[in-house]
Amino acid sequence: MYDLPPSIKITTPPSNGVASVVQVRDHPAYPKTSHLYKCNERMIPMTAVKYQPNPGFTGTDHLGLQTNFTGSLRSPDKTEIAVEVTP
To answer: What is the signed CA dihedral for 22, 29, 25, 23, rounded to 10 degrees?
Structure first.
């Protein structure tokens, strides 16, 4: 279990907008079947990615992310995110 939110780095910026990494406080969303469900009542620090499309853009945009958990011995995770922008 990690006490800090993961670090997130944008490795490939979106082509049709702007993305940024922000620190927020929010409620977790554990399912009712989880032993951690009661934790949903508390606000915790989280890392989020904020996306703003370019004016007039609609369609699918992509960005690459790398996440790394503090204290983890694993290699950072890399993923590509597809963002659907509707009018």
So the answer is: -20
Residue 55, pLDDT above cutoff 90: yes
Q: Give buried/exposed letters for 1-29 (b at 16+ CB in 10 A, else e).
A: eeeebeebebeeebebbebeeeeeeeeee
Q: Where are the beta strands (DSSP E) in 1-87?
A: 7-12, 17-26, 44-53, 59-68, 77-85
How does residue 69 score in pLDDT terms, banded at 50, 70 and 90?
A: confident
Q: Which of 18, 84, 21 is nearest to 51 (CA)?
A: 18
Among candidate residues 35, 43, 82, 37, the one with its CA nearest the CA of residue 63 = 82
Could you read off the pLDDT of 23-49 as tens digits, one per residue? 999 999 999 999 999 999 999 988 899
